[in-house]
Specification:
Layout lengths: L2 E5 L3 H15 L7 H13 L9 E6 L2 E15 L2 E13 L8 H14 L4 E5 L14 E2 L5 E5 L9 E4 L5 H12 L5 E2 L3 H14 L2 E7 L2 E9 L2 E7 L5 H5 L7 E4 L6 H5 L5 E4 L8 E5 L8 H8 L15
Helix pairs in contact: 1-2
Length: 317
Amino acid sequence: MSLSISAIKSKSEIEKALSLVARIFSTHTSISETNFRKNKKLEWSGFDFFKDDDIIVAKDSDIIIGVIRLVYRIVHIKGQPYKTAGFADVCISEEYREKGISKKLMKYAINKANFNCDIGLLFARKHVDYYYTKFGFWGLSTYNKGIIRNTLYNDTTASFKNVKSNDLRYCNYFYEKSYLFLSGFMERTPKYWKYILEKCYQLNFNFNVIFKNNELCGYFIYKKNIIYEIAFSSLINIKDILASFELDADIQIEADPEHVVFTQLQLFDFTIHHRHCIFGGHMLKILKKQDHLNFQDTHDFLKINNTTLNFNTLNQF
């Protein structure tokens, strides 16, 4: 085997790497390999904030056998912004596994991220639990969700419309107002909002803006009875949102317990679920350190011992 690891070098290599990622990851979803590849191509080449040279590949001669894509974001934890390198689409071709290639690929990507980022972040699949702890990544998210049964509200003076592209700047205003001081908040550019709009279309998510007295007052993104993101002004109450769902439906809201929506739910009968897994899931690593920090040192560095971290579906990569 003639192994080399480098940033991607050509459009043809992008296509080969994309095919490898689609082949491996589509087997863990209900999406066909063709559709998975189409969706993934949007992330890789549909928006110019994703750079080709942030795709790192392992090759055996001219054959691409492994991939990592770096995604750069600004993440806020306890009000502190951190330059963040997201590690996405990490995979090795089946016939090349158990040969130490993934370790070399991860080391290369970490060294590249060290140049200009403070933390690394990845969203690990369950079947690779314990793997990323070898590289100093630790599960720090608590996967919060609230569940409420709407038994009372089926009427509202608010109205709901499908979002339009010229609504997105208002959505960003409400997003920052509702999420900025929650740990796990990610900054969004106008281009990223357009990406979210396309991502919602791909995932069959509903993206509705909220109006009251002809004024745009917020938005929420949902599928069936699961609300993935929600933000609104003081003119809106959660009762207005609940009224848009069927009576007696169990509505799930994925949000930090400090989100304003849970403050309004205090008068309701609702349940908040937490799940914490230090060896998998949403994992963080402190960069620019000579050695990998352990779980407690990572906690202490970020000062999050009494803080929950949440990375919602629309911010994952």
